[in-house]
Every structure is written in C-alpha cells, then in structure tokens.
Amino acid sequence: STGQRIIWCRPLNADAKLMAWKNSGMRVILLLLLLPLVSSLGPNVVFILIDDTGFNDIGYNNKSSSSPIPRIRTPHIDALAETGVTLTNFYVQPICTPTRAALMTGRYPFRYGVTGYTISADAPWGIPVNETFLPEFLKDNGYATAMFGKWHLGFYKPEYLPMSRGFDRQSGIYNALADHFSHVIGPGYDWHVNQTTDWSLKGQYSGNLVRDNAVAYIRERSRGSHLSEPFFLYLSLIHISEPTRLLSISYAVFCLKKKKKKK
After folding, report:
1. Is 96 marked active-site?
2. pLDDT tens for residues 170-197?
3. What is the DSSP string of 98-145?
4. Is the pTM of this model over 0.85?
5. Which of 34, 64, 109, 249 is the Cys-Cys partner for 114 at CB 3.0 to 4.6 Å?
6. Which is catalytic among the residues 76, 152, 183, 239?
7. Pairing of strands 231-237, 45-50
C-alpha cells in the first residue's frame, strides 16, 4: 500500500531479536525486517509487507529536533532504521493485489491484467500461473520458503494457492478484510494452515497468529541441520487493515496515552 516502508538491516543476534519481538507486543511485528542469520549458501531473508500504514505511522518519520518524541512510537523499527539503511524514494502500488503481484513476479502488474482493483472473495481468477513467483526462484537456489498472513493473489483453484507457487509452508487468509478474531469474510471462514482450513484458530487474534508462526519458524530454521539451508520468510501482515479491531491491552495503552496527553 501507499505507506509501505523498506528497511535493510545488518545481522544481529537471533535469540536477542526474537525475545525483543516476542515481548514487545503489537508494534514489533515489523521487527522481522532483518536478516537473522547467514547460512553457508546465502543470507536468510525476511520480507514484511504491511497494508494501510501511513507515512507518519512510523516513529522516525514523525519526529524532529524540535519534536524528538514521535506521536506514534515504534522504537524497534526506529532502532533498525538507525543501525541499517532506509530507502526513502521508491514507488509502490496503492492497493493489495497489485502490490503483492509486483513483489512476487518482479513485473508491473498491468502486464498481466492487474491494475486498479483487487481479487474479491468470489472472483474466479488469480495471478496467471505462467508467472514465476519469487519463492519459486529461491527454491531453485536451495532456499526453504514460508509465508504467514494475507495472500490475496487468487485462490479459486489449488494451483493459485501459496504452496503451488513456491512456498513450503503457509498460514493465514487467502482473501482480504477478514475479521481479525473470527477470520470470517462474508459468508466464509478464511484461515488456512498449509492450505487446509483450520477451524481451531477461530477466536484467536490474527496479529498474534502471524507473529507466533514467524517466531517459531525462525527459531526452527536457526538450529541443527537447518543452519546449512537458507530461508525466505514472507510476512504479509493483516491486522492494520480493515476491519479495525484491537486487542484489549493495546486499546487500553492507547487510551491511557490519550488521557495523559489531555491533562
């Protein structure tokens, strides 16, 4: 979306990063914009895509020498930006499906018929299967691949699903705008794990599910025989997108800050 940010970070200690991310709650879901370890074959890559994040929704974009405390605080993202490299001049698609299509194919979406619209829940189409996706190229070069979060690139046939397009693992929603607790969009339930509907996750917050899947995957890939195989982890976060629903603890912290500001 229009507010996506790109940060390229240096490698840090994996255990320390995982602990910081796990303990810091909602806002640190973005902390996975780092390269946790380097295998003998190539760097591990974690790519995070965020829908509906405004330019000033990131801490380092809304503070200055005259206002050193940002209105929206993202301390972990700010730390990554300060110790890494930020890209400040780039262009992205304004909505969901074209953004993801460009990322996965490396081509302008209009070249295969995707421009100013998204794939609806009842749409009988997806990104053409003759387009080779990024994880397919990576798998050909020895990478393990996984994606957690929102797909939104077609799901009306199995060949359009993530595990048919280069991902070894998948957990999340196929479409968009699913409720963050019930995972329901329209008349249908939409949370799948490795392309199997998982009803047991109904009632669990989507942001936490994506976070926990990512932490578990990085820990798994950081041990034993997995160290010799690089991985590509794609996180497509969905909890910022509509419908807007927050965990009660996040809402309480937000309200407390507003009350303090008014005094």
Report:
1. yes
2. 999 999 989 999 999 988 999 999 999 9
3. HHHHHHHHSS-GGGGT-SS----TT-S--S-TTSPPHHHHHHHTT-EE
4. no
5. 109
6. 152
7. parallel
